[in-house]
Amino acid sequence: MKHYDLDILFLSIPVLTLQNPPVSTAVLSACVKEAGYTSKCFDANVLLREMCKTGEVFDKISYKFEEVSTKTFSEDLIECLFTEPEQILYDWLAAVVSHIKQINPKWVGLSVFSYLSHKACLLLSMTIRKEFPDIKIVIGGRGANSFAFGPEYFTFNPLFTKLINDDINDVIGNCLLQTGFIDSFIDGDAEQEIIDLLQNEDARLTGSTENINLDTIPFCDYDDFDLTKYEYVNNKPQLSITGSKGCVRKCTFCDIPVLWPKYKFRSGEHIASEMIALKKRYNVNSFFLTDSLVNGSLVAFRDFTKAIAKYNNENPTDRLRWAGQHITRPIHQIPSDYYDLIEQSGGEGLTIGVESGSDNVREHMKKKFKSVDMDHELEQFYKKNISCVLLFFSCYPTETWQDFIDTAEMIIRYQKYYASGTVYKITLGIPYVHLQNTGLHVMQDDIKMRTEGSSDVLWLLEDNPELTFYERVRRRLILQEIAFALNIPLSRTSAEINQIRFTLIYKSERIRNFFGPPKKIPVYPDVFNMTQFDNLLMPLELQRRVYSHLQANPTYNKQIDLLHSSRYNDIETDAEAIESYLKLKQELEKLL
Fold this sequence. Notes:
Elements: E1 6-12, H1 23-34, E2 39-43, H2 44-52, H3 55-66, H4 77-81, H5 87-103, E3 105-111, H6 118-131, E4 136-140, H7 158-164, H8 172-178, E5 184-188, H9 193-200, E6 204-207, E7 238-241, E8 244-245, H10 256-259, E9 264-265, H11 268-282, E10 286-289, H12 298-314, E11 321-324, H13 338-344, E12 350-355, H14 359-365, H15 371-384, E13 388-392, H16 401-413, H17 415-420, E14 423-427, H18 439-442, E15 449-451, E16 459-461, H19 469-486, H20 493-506, H21 508-515, E17 524-525, E18 535-536, H22 540-552, H23 556-567, H24 574-591
Helix pairs in contact: 2-3, 2-5, 11-12, 12-13, 16-19, 16-22, 19-24, 20-24
């Protein structure tokens, strides 16, 4: 019988942010060790970043893991998977293989965070199977339970058709399990299932938090991570912890209620105790709560903020700080000391899914707050010096032109908060994509939404026929033009716009067949010289609105420049955003 030196090696794989060490493998490693097994973690993303030398090269190589390849089948996996293979990909893969050989584990666990990790998951699972036929492979994570390589990836790359026998309607975990490239797939939460796997070696496990007391999960174990190698926001080391699973909202566009039907949360005191314990163990003062929302339970959130506020008041020169995803609630639900406790506990960089500036759209989404509530919350954040990140996306299926204008108006009037640093960045997102197993997918027949197969972009409401894919691209480009004019600090712009562009390129025929020939899209001169471009897609009426705002607030653009050049390292440069914008605009013009 073969001898192994380790029970399981957890691999974090591209594409994954390097803003902090990955919490998924850290908590699973802690669970395994508490159960009496041996484990180690290895961050293959950090390895890739080191081999790339510069951030620019790393971003370029990372994107290669996201893009769709149209290459023909080849025995060389990298040659097949990557449209333009580079030597660094071969070197990186060889280094990962070398690390596995050195560690000699019985199991390798691949943590698949999202569909963006599918290509890396396939590359590594097939390579490990070839190089180490005796090592068992398990995959898990939220991305392992999403449709393989995106719903239509098989259309473009014959390798996957060859492997999966044309079955594109299954999640990647099942696909790789059926083809024998992995030995086990954990669907769902794995804190208990990873232990069951090591005990029984089952091929298919389904995890759930229904019967788990989250207060009994061991604290994260970051011992295997070199904490100096991450690209933290503001260059402050930050560790992640998880305080809850699921969400108290059931937004129609989101699949969280499917993944976690019941909202489960730890006590606020328990979350605070882990934060304090990790601070003492790793000498880190900043934390990121990975929860779908940190304030799902107002009672637990209040207990958490009170406990950390107490610690901070007792340790004024060694304060803790934390960030996480935060839901905006109606004004009448907010306790009087709510924002004071967030400020005293060190809350910063809270991420809020605003999604739309239209009350009508948000009501259909079941977001359960209005623009007046959002306005009130930002003003409170401004007064208490609490920073936040706002997430938007356009073209929800019910979005009319007036709804879109409402979103544009909100983004414009919030420039005050970009200039003050209250909103330190926003994302404009990609136009709505129609995911299976969401609330909107379930109700699509009732609201007369026409769809085609498993495509996430081929959809249209019968009573909102103007919102074709071409119109969605136009609206996203208009928002980008507003961002250029107002100097809005953005994140992930290039990745978002490039995703839209590749959809236009690779699905152009299907898009045309579904929506019909595109109508000519009007182009307007940049009348007020607000951007770097001679012509815009932004209508003149909206241009006048932006220009009027700039005239009334002449210092905001310079304030934003000064603030973000000195405080933050995760804001995308104008050059990157401009290049992506121009490429998408040109691609759209080709089709007209």
